[in-house]
Amino acid sequence: MMRQELRLSGSGGQGLILAGIILAEAALHDGKNVVQSQSYGPEARGGASKAEVIISDEIINYPKVNKCDILLCLTKKAYDKYIDSLKPGGMLILDSTVTDRPERDDIKIYSIPILETASKEIGKPMVANIIALGSIYELTKIVNKESLEKAVLNRVPQGTEELNKKALEEGFNLILKHEESTYGEVC
Amino acid sequence: MAEKIVKLMQGNEACVEGAIAAGMRFYAGYPITPSTEIAELSAEKLPRIGGKFIQMEDEIASISAIIGASLTGKKSMTATSGPGFSLKQEGIGYAVAAEVPCVIVNVQRGGPSTGLPTSPAQGDIMQARWGTHGDHSIIALYPSTVREIYDTTIKAFNLSEKYRTPVILLMDEVIGHMREKIEIPDPDEIKIINRKKPNVKPDEYLPYKIEENDMIPAMANFGEGYRYHVTGLIHDETGFPTSNHRIAENLVNRLVNKIKDNADDIVEYEEYLMEDAEQIIVAYGATARSAKSAINQLREEGVKIGLFRPITIWPMAEKQLKIIAKKVNRITVVEMNMGQYFNEVDRVAGKYTKVDKYSRVHGELITPEEIVSFIKEG
Question: CA quadruple B277, B278, B283, B286: dihedral positive or negative?
Fold first, then answer.
């Protein structure tokens, strides 16, 4: 596997750093090399927040993500800030609340109701990060499903295992059960 | 043999795990970004293994506390960043003069002053060497991966015990905060060095007396019946102050030479693709990771280039650099400061080859692309 670089962006408090750690641990279970890092702004909540994950079969020397292969944006603010960092041929995963579209035809775009599913289907906005991981998995297969499930359960607070399992399942289903099996064409 | 533990770990966390594996049982500190996780984790872990954690009122108190704890025989550590490192210099000098083993971690951030709290920089290279006043030696180590943070933290404790000196662990924010795969070594594989204890009775003990062919005095723990005087003043072998010129000269010389003369034991470095290299990069810490990526790219284009990566920053690998300098036609020092290590490399290698610097102080890790284009410019 070539070096794959992911950037998970949104606002502080959406759990994206935890999502990055979970994804990195899943890749570790797969036996990959992995580096996870995050931006450190002064805000605890609100503001732009991002987590980055590099997954590779090779040794990872340079540990930062500049241009990424996969970009998740849960907010418009994050979209505005990071859209230019997506590589040609890359994958853009937008929450459906972000209605902007970049003027470029060299990327794949998916618009998915991640935040809405968290608050309406599950009734817990805080599981948006886990739903996002489920959808990222179905779109990219960047880690093994078992590894991802194991990593989620390993990191979430005790007593929330079932809730998070459900959130992950919803994330898979957002891709699997969509009529065209993808949101790629909607935009 | 038990199965190896492989996990995702943050650099700052690896520092605490390494310290505990080395035997750290006392931590005093005043938390500061980007080193805070070291204090947090020490606070969490030390009480569970019979150790002590104290959050002190400031940095000077922190270094003073670890010196005191070390005198009782506890392996001790503090962690800080640039602004706190400045304040700790007084205590570091005291530990040098009184020969008290301790480890000071500096997860660097942009300076001067409070600078760029959350951004990486390598601006404390010279402060680690000369931050405290007077002629002295120091040992400073500089890891480049999360696993190496674990290993060099253990090494820092071992060297501090062996040579009775403060050891500085310089770290980059980039590696302190990132998470990476780490394989925790089996405890049996870890080599631990403890300070040399006196083999005389308490009433015969001279705390700063050295044996022939040895430069390190045996160290008794306070609380075990050995009573002695500890001071930052120039002292004789009883530990009491003196202004005798001969004793003063001998003491300062010994403090410097006990490190300098043992450089071969202390100096550690990595050579990467050096065998056929016509030119090399000298880089350490996170910058060395960018340099490796750059070297891999340049090698694909046929450029015969390698990396010399000091893990021991002080004392410097002068002997090795001199040999290399005679073989290559260019050395480029890449660092996130205005050329602090470049000046030292140039001093050692400048007579034999061209020494260039690529330095940035913009608060971001230097990228492989920047290095590639600088090397190509010639």
Answer: negative
